[in-house]
Amino acid sequence: MVKIRKIINELDPYIPGRSIKEIASEYSLQKEDIIKLGSNENPLGPSPRAIEAIKGELDLISQYPESGLRDLKEEIAKYSGVSAQEVIIGGDGADEIIDVLGKTFLDPGCEFIVPLPSYMYYEFTLRTHGAIPVYGRWDVEENKLDVESVLGAITPETRLIFLCSPNNPTGGLIDKEDIETILSSTDALVVVDEAYFEFSGVNNIDLIDKYENLFILRTFSKVMGLAGMRIGYGLSNPRIIEYMHRVKPVFSLTNLSHIAALATLRDTDYLEESTRVSVESREFLYEKISRINHLKVFKSKANYLLVDVRKTGMNSSQIAKKLLEKGIIVRDCKSFKGLDDYWIRVSVGTIPEDERFIEVLQNILNES
């Protein structure tokens, strides 16, 4: 019999958000009637300029992609306020960058720290490198990082520390002072995941020149509306970036993804509108959900809201299923370590989509 690595046998599968296509099939719904509020995507869709740029370059799918990505690195550097030598680009979203971090910095038996609850793909990916997860704590009720729990988890074996800000799934920010405290307390690489930073108006770019052990992780999947094109990037000092390029797949970013990313970065009106619409939706949803009896919703600086449903008499799976039956997808958070079975995460939509969600949710709760 073919032998499988022990860690793969032990690994629980990653549970992603559900797609419109699978929900339409499972519940006999029309795809156009389904509202997807489960995967933190851009409700406006992609930039029209990105669509037009792709249409003009479809013949490139027969050719290998560029490996250097110089023009895209320069655009990202301009957008981010760094130099092109401080940029690395991944072709499977930020998830590829996480994997490259593992290849670059983790030996079997080394440790990485994740405060719980947070983005589960860190652990899912890095355990396959033989690394050991060590957990800090995110204080859900206060929606803030328990800094002492992270500091207390650091050992001589710690290689990577993940700080998601805004945190997924809670939406809370990590104070820059707390990030600096952690950076100053270790020689491990501190990875600040800023996938949702545009919705908060806060970033930590200014710390790159100050701390050689800082790496900032970002994506084109959220405000830039390119989740299906799988584009992520990282920012750090040139030494870190050079080592990571040694093990990064050479042709991982497709030609069409490259073209879409460039066009989107150059469409500043679209980026401004995407941010505005998502923040407006987030605040609308917060105000409406906070008025519903038996629900507790948390303030967020991202493009989603975490909601505690335990006082409804239903758990997260029951509420999520009832919403699915009505054509509304939210994220059942029971798969997030650090949360129990009573949390859902609601992504922003257009205001009409938000209004429909609130109406259906209220009806479900009234019926129960």
UniProtKB/TrEMBL annotation:
Q: Which residues form the Aminotransferase class I/classII large domain?
A: 33-360
Pfam families attached to this UniProt entry: Aminotran_1_2
Q: Does the keyword Transmembrane helix apply?
A: no
Q: Report the superkingdom from the record.
A: Archaea
The chain residues annotated with the modification N6-(pyridoxal phosphate)lysine are K222
* Needed cofactors: pyridoxal 5'-phosphate
What InterPro entries does the record point to? Answer: Aminotransferase_I/II_large (IPR004839), HisP_aminotrans (IPR005861), PyrdxlP-dep_Trfase (IPR015424), PyrdxlP-dep_Trfase_major (IPR015421), PyrdxlP-dep_Trfase_small (IPR015422)
The record's listing under SUPFAM superfamilies reads:
PLP-dependent transferases
Q: What HAMAP family does its record include?
A: HisC_aminotrans_2
Member of which family? Answer: Belongs to the class-II pyridoxal-phosphate-dependent aminotransferase family. Histidinol-phosphate aminotransferase subfamily.
Spell out the protein name for this chain.
Answer: Histidinol-phosphate aminotransferase
What organism is this sequence from?
A: Methanobacterium alkalithermotolerans
Q: Which gene encodes it?
A: hisC
